[in-house]
Amino acid sequence: MKMKKFGGTESRIYELVRPIAEEHGLIVWDVRFEKEGAMWYLRVFLDHMERPVNISDCEAVTRPLNKILDDTDPIPQTYTLEVGSAGLERELIRETHFDACEGSKVRVRMIRPMEDGSREVTGILTGFDRENVTLSVPSGDGSAEKSVTIPLSGAAYVRLADLDSDEIQRAAD
Fold it and tell me: 142 or 43: which carries more pLDDT confidence?
């Protein structure tokens, strides 16, 4: 897995949408300009640090963003704008994502099986650098936590892990 950086179009859109999102207490988690088949999609993913993103949040960002995009016309192609939540199991693809999620439960999916034959590791994100993620995971005998360092080059993805029902309820409150 390689750290993703904003491309030129994504960077321009990020700079346009960031002040709109911040005005509503939101964070721009990611911006993607992607081609699927013959169609282009501009996707903006939002987050909120204290509660889940809802449809009203997406509408509050979509309307002014649409106007700015129409006025400035930064993308020459025809595209569809989609604004949504980054989601509970959002992928961590930028350095800022790893920094923001330190201390959170994450799931790392490996490209190839590890020594024990497994392809996934779930644990608490305790460290990150450009080449590795470090997780605190339960030891096999259940006695204590152990630290596991995983090279990002061998990871297919790193995502926030499933939240249990108590964590979801706390996020909703």
Answer: 43
Q: What is the pLDDT of residues 33-55, one digit of tens each?
A: 999 999 999 999 999 888 899 99
CATH number of the structural domain 95-172: 2.30.30.100
pTM over 0.85: no
**CB distance 145 to 136 below 8 Å:** yes
Parts of the chain belonging to CATH 2.30.30.100: 95-172
Looking at the chain, which runs of residues are DSSP E strands? 27-36, 39-47, 80-85, 105-110, 120-128, 132-138, 145-151, 155-160
Q: How far apart are CA 9 and CA 22, in angstroms?
A: 20
Give the CATH class of 8-85: alpha beta
